[in-house]
Design a protein that fits this description.
By secondary structure, the chain is an all-alpha fold. Helices cover about 75% and strands about 0% of the residues. It has 17 helices and no strands. Helix 3 (about 45-75) runs parallel beside helix 5 and helix 3 packs antiparallel against helix 16 (about 355-385). The longest helix is centred in the middle third of the chain and has 50 residues, at about 140-190. The N and C termini lie close together (about 10 Å). The relative contact order is 0.16.
Length: about 425
C-alpha cells in the first residue's frame, strides 16, 4: 500500500466513519460489561471458575476466528458485522434468564462466536474502504477514534448500569444489553462495501457512485482466502512481526479488563459504586485512543517508554488497595489503548495480499491464545495472593517488552509525515 496524496472523497469517508463510530459505540453500550463478573460471583462462582469461563470464551474465539476471517475475505464483511452483535445478544439473554455455570459457559461460547465474526472483518472493511478512496493514511486516527467511541459506549454503560441494577436487577441490565446489540446490527447495514478482482490484483480503482457490495463471486473462495492469509503471515517477516506485536500488546490488558470490577470491589466500595470507579478506566482509554495521531510519531524508544510507564502505573495503582489507585490504573489502560491502536495500524499497513481479514484474524487468534495464558496465570495468582498482586504480576511482561524495544532502538511506527511504519507496496482487499 502506498499512501497517496489524491483528493479524498470526504462525503464517502464521513459516511464510513460515522457508521464505524456508531457501531463501535453501540457494541460497547452493554450494561452487563461492568457487572457480569459480579453476576457470576453472586451466583456462587469462585475466581477460579470465573477464569475458566474466560478461557472458554477465548477458546471459542480461537477456534472460529480464522475460519470467520477467511469467510469475511470470501463473502460479505458487512453481513458478518450485522450477524456478530445478534449472536452475542443471545448469550447475554441466556445469562440473565438462566444464571448458572453451564449457561454462563454457553453465553461465552456465543460471545466468542460473535467476536470472531467481527474480528478481522471490521478492520479489513475499514482499511479497504479507506485505501480505495486514497485515505489509508487516516486509518490509525480513525480506528483510534472508533476505539474511543467504544469506550464512550462503555462509559455510558457504566453510568447506567448502577441505577438500572438498583431499579430492575440483572434482568433489566440484560434487556438493555440485548437492545444495544440489536441497534448495532441495524447500524452495520450502513457500512459501505466495494470489492472486486481489480482490488485483489492490487489496483486502486476510482470509487463508483453507488454503494452496493461486490458480488460474492468476485472475491477469492473461502479455501483460497484462508490459504492466502496463512501464506502471507508465514512467509512475510514484517507481517509476522507486526502480527505478534499486536498479540503481545493487546493480550495482557485485554485480559485484565475482565477483572477490574473485582479489583474495584476489593478497595472496599459497594457494588453500586463499582461502575463509577470503572468510569476512570474508560476515561483513560478514551484519552489513549484520541492520542493515536501523536503516537504515530513515536520511535521504538518512545513506544517502549509508553509501555514501561503503563506497566508501572498499573502495578502501583493496583497495589494501593484504595479507590484512588484507580487513577493510576486508568492512566495505564489509556497508554495500553494507544499502544494497541498503533500496533494494529502497523499490521494493516504491512498486509499486501488479498486476505486482509484472514491475516487480521490470525492476529486475533494469537491474542486470544496469549489471553488464555493470562487468564490461567491470573486465576492462580489471585487465588493465592489476591487481585491486586495478580494485576501487578501481569505488568511484568510489559516491562520486559519495553526493555527489548528500547534496546532495539528502531523507530515505531513511522517517520514524520508517514502514518504507519514502512507500508507495503500495495494493499489487498
Amino acid at each position: 500500500m502506498t499512501v497517496t496524496s489524491t483528493r479524498v472523497p470526504d462525503r464517502a469517508v464521513r459516511r464510513l466513519t460515522a457508521t464505524l463510530y456508531g457501531y463501535a459505540f453501540l457494541t460497547d453500550l452493554v450494561l452487563l460489561y461492568p457487572l457480569y463478573a459480579l453476576l457470576f460471583t453472586d451466583t456462587g462462582l469462585s475466581v477460579g471458575q470465573i477464569s475458566s469461563l474466560f478461557v472458554i470464551w477465548s477458546t471459542s474465539a480461537i477456534l472460529l476466528e480464522v475460519p470467520s476471517g477467511a469467510l469475511a475475505d470470501a463473502r460479505s464483511r458487512r453481513l458478518l458485522l450485522c450477524l456478530a452483535p445478534l449472536v452475542t445478544a443471545a448469550g447475554y439473554a441466556l445469562w440473565v434468564l438462566l444464571p448458572s455455570y453451564p449457561v454462563f459457559a454457553l453465553g461465552f461460547l456465543l460471545w466468542g462466536a460473535g467476536a470472531a465474526l467481527s474480528s478481522g472483518a471490521l478492520e479489513a472493511l475499514v482499511f479497504t474502504e479507506l485505501d480505495r478512496r486514497g485515505a489509508a493514511g487516516r486509518y490509525a486516527r480513525i480506528t483510534g477514534r472508533a476505539r474511543t467511541a467504544g469506550v464512550l459506549g462503555a462509559l455510558a454503560a457504566s453510568l447506567l448500569a448502577g441505577p438500572v441494577l438498583l431499579v430492575g436487577g440483572y434482568p433489566a441490565v440484560g434487556a438493555a444489553s440485548v437492545l444495544a446489540c440489536l441497534l448495532a446490527a441495524a447500524v452495520a447495514t450502513r457500512f459501505p462495501e466495494h470489492r472486486g478482482r481489480a482490488q485483489q490484483a492490487g489496483a486502486q480503482p476510482v470509487p463508483p457512485e453507488g454503494d452496493a457490495a461486490a458480488e460474492p463471486g468476485e472475491q477469492l473462495g473461502w479455501v483460497a482466502s484462508l490459504r492466502a492469509g496463512l501464506a502471507e503471515a508465514r512467509a512475510v517477516p514484517s507481517v509476522r512481526r507486526a502480527l505478534l506485536l499486536v498479540a503481545v500488546v493487546a493480550a495482557g490488558w485485554g485480559a485484565l479488563d475482565e477483572y477490574t470490577p473485582l479489583l474495584a470491589r476489593d478497595t472496599g466500595v459497594d457494588d453500586a459504586t463499582v461502575p463509577a470507579l470503572l468510569l476512570l478506566i474508560w476515561a483513560g482509554m478514551t484519552v489513549g485512543g484520541l492520542l493515536a495521531p501523536a503516537g504515530e510519531k513515536l520511535g521504538a524508544r518512545g513506544y517502549a517508554g509508553v509501555l514501561a510507564a503503563a506497566a508501572l502505573a498499573l502495578a502501583g495503582g493496583a497495589l494501593t488497595g484504595h479507590p484512588a489507585g484507580f487513577v493510576l490504573v486508568a492512566m495505564a489502560f489509556g497508554a495500553f489503548q494507544l499502544a494497541t491502536v498503533l500496533a494494529d495500524a502497523r499490521l494493516q499497513a504491512r498486509i499486501a495480499g488479498p486476505s486482509r481479514a484472514t491475516v487480521t484474524s490470525l492476529a486475533g487468534v494469537a491474542t486470544d491464545v496469549t489471553i488464555i495464558a493470562v487468564y490461567a496465570g491470573y486465576g492462580l495468582v489471585a487465588t493465592t495472593a489476591g487481585n491486586a498482586v495478580a494485576f501487578a504480576v501481569a505488568a511484568v511482561p510489559y516491562l520486559a517488552l519495553a526493555l527489548l524495544m528500547g534496546a532495539a532502538g528502531r523507530r515505531y511506527p513511522g517517520r514524520r509525515g508517514h502514518p504507519v511504519i514502512e507500508p507495503a507496496a500495495r494493499s489487498g482487499p
